[in-house]
Predict the 3D structure of the following.
Amino acid sequence: MPALLEMRGISKVFPGVRALDHVTLTVEAGEIHAICGENGAGKSTLMKVLSGIYPHGAYEGEIVYDGAPLMNRTISDSERKGIIIIHQELALVPLLSIAENLFLGNEVARNGVINWPATFQKTETLLAKVGLTDAPTTRVEKLGVGKQQLIEIAKALAKDVRLLILDEPTAALQENDSAKLMDLLLELKAQGITSILISHKLNEINKVADRITILRDGATVSTLTRAEISEDRIIRDMVGRDMAHRYPDRTPQIGETLMEVRGWNVWHPDQAGRQMIRNVDFTVGNGEIVGIAGLMGTGRTELAMSLFGHSYGRKITGEVRIGGRVTDTSTVAKAVAAGLSYVTEDRKVLGLVLEEPVVRNITLANLTGVSKNGVLDKRRETQVAERYRRAMAIRTPGVFQKVVNLSGGNQQKVVLSKWLFTDPQVLILDEPTRGIDVGAKFEIYSIMNDLAAEGRGVVMISSEMPELLGMCDRIYVMNEGRIVGELSRAEASQEKIMAMILKNHGKAA
Amino acid sequence: MSVDTNHKDQGIRALLGGHLRENGMLLALVAIVFFFTLMVRGMLDVDFLSAQNITNLFLQNSYVIIMALGMLLVIVAGHIDLSIGSVVGFTGAVAAVLTVNLDWPVLAVILSCLTVGGLIGAAQGYWIAYWRIPSFIVTLAGMLIFRGSTLWLLGGQNIGPFPKTFQSLSTGFIPDIFGTWDETLAGVERLNSTAILLVALAALAVVWIGWRARNRDAEFGMTPEPMVLFVARNILLSAALIFVGYKLAQFRGLPNVVVVLTVLTVFYAFITENTTIGRRIYALGGNEKAAKLSGIRTNRLVFFCFVNMGVLAALAGMIVAARLNSSTPKAGGGFELDVIAAVFIGGASMTGGSGKIIGVVVGALIMGVMNNGMSILGIGIDYQQVIKGLVLLAAVIFDVYNKNK
């Protein structure tokens, strides 16, 4: 079978950066082709070249699609040829209905007048194809992220897609939604639709991909066939070095109990009578790394945020002891003063002031530490930022660089620096490695180990079980707002965690 | 990914250095002043930069600059205040009623008016900060409420005149402590030595502060702006300051308003750049959620910004009333738009989180010089509005263009 798509010698240069360097990519008709690479390896840039976001002439090299040279000037050029890209940030209008979203810009209309019966009928057919049964008039904002992702795919189907490009489609999905999405991809493949899947998640790639192309530093490293795919091989090609040790070595030295939470209850901030956290007890010791496992939406973030200055929820009851003494953590300032820090799950929205420089972000939570009587000592502030830049190996041209220009891993290090500068006794890290490439993950893990070695307590919330198993001394398992189990490092395994979650499913009511 | 480190981009952009925006604004102001000087001389054979006109420029625009200082904080925090024009009218009316009708002493009137302004700001800020009602709506309501209240308080009449002491808020001058130099010097009749001295000190301070900031940047490892540029800008600034001071000295000396303006500008520049409260306001405007989760009491800061705005609007209201020597129901109408325009011309971002005091002052001066210059040239109010609108648009487009670059 001839290849559906051939990209040859694609190069794209931005001012100061060579984003793509003679990249080659061949996608056969009817296959699912995965593209892997660290953040900044050039995956998204390559797809932007393909989909016409960078028009023909803005890059070097040639693209042959369906036997003819492809010279897109706009996105609609490529969409007309059946090349449709679904971006990481979904492009749906939350306040419009499913039907309106599916045919946005592509309405079933005559002379600008929309034919609603036909629209609804077509919508239902498309929804059935992606396995959804929601009413076409449902507003998109009412749907979860998983369903929204499926709506995006239905939207692509509405445009007669031939080559579907998915840019990290499962980054924000929980495991069962991800699995559904992968099944759908396989179904579409059976219908003859070719897909390109950009993903960080190796298990997904293993499951669906026929072939995989690995990019590193803007160049093609290898294209592997199904028989050659193995996690070790992929990781080695991605990072260019062996990652025999994905988690840094550490000898835990756990002292006495540092923080203790007893009988913690939290209600939903808007929906009266909905309890989000039920009677949670947990402890963290000196120098201990404690994990909290659980599916998304089981209340892990809600637990952390309610502990941290009552930043989430209402009618919060329960007791927090830090260093043996009952501690008031009812405002963020009090929680910080008591030695608690919380690194949010969403660093861009909740953790950083993106348009401000590194230095200002690092000192934000402890401005009194660099000021006297409310007047800032800028020299001291810069010294503090420099110290953390070196200690954390934050890769930036300087501490006056805006954090928006930093990569995900380095942004996370800035957030960590901000909290370390408050000198916390206990740090709660919520999904600390989400959206960070493999190399930077290792650095974040090392920092966590250092923190524990200094005698601080670390609480790590994560959806990635291997990471919890690799890092934690103890793991609590949460489900539906409760802690349903506790496992020591020795006894913990993915199977046991899943079993605890499933066994307790639906018990809370 | 290889990072290209050679910067061959040695155009005007590089020459203006990292402070493209501020330097550009300063150049624009100088260019506009030059333009009007030439036009006014050419067409009317009058000196645009006469002592009297420079004095006038400051008296006419003081209220815009004063309120722009407060508006910058409000806009940096991510809000807007549409009520300030009405607050100017209302506090002016309060001043008139207290002074003219009730015969209160001037100091008591001033303090009362500032308090009233603060209370108005607090009343609006309360809903905005603690109830999260959009500032646009709350202050739009405030705009109507206080315009109506002004009419009611004044009974639809003008109230005046004010006693001399109150008028001196706007039309007074700093007395000459050292006595005027006589005619032997440079053939000029009278020269107010206090004015000259103060302005010379100000020029020295500007250069000294600039020099210190430059040294500190270098110490922090930031690429300092090119020396040529630094020297050129400081020579230009000092020359302009001394020129203005010299001119003012020829007339009646330093207007009180100029002193108030300078003190407030320095004060707010310090607040925004060197204090924790300033830093927190920028963080709040940049990302409110992140600021909150960093332990910053964002509600209280927003509240503070509106109280501060109210106090400054009250000060402006008294200066306007003192200048007109009566309080009128229409006083302050449309001021909010001039002030907001000055803040955006000065480089503040619509979405909050960025903007500088010095930019705002230069922005207000650009608007002021254009108003004054066009009026002297006899350009109709119709054209004036169109031109001002275009300048605002151009300044913001310039910002957006630079950001996307």
Residues 101 and 432 of chain A are 33 Å apart (CA to CA). The radius of gyration of chain A is 25 Å. The first helix of chain A runs from residue 43 to 51. DSSP finds 17 helices and 24 strands in chain A.
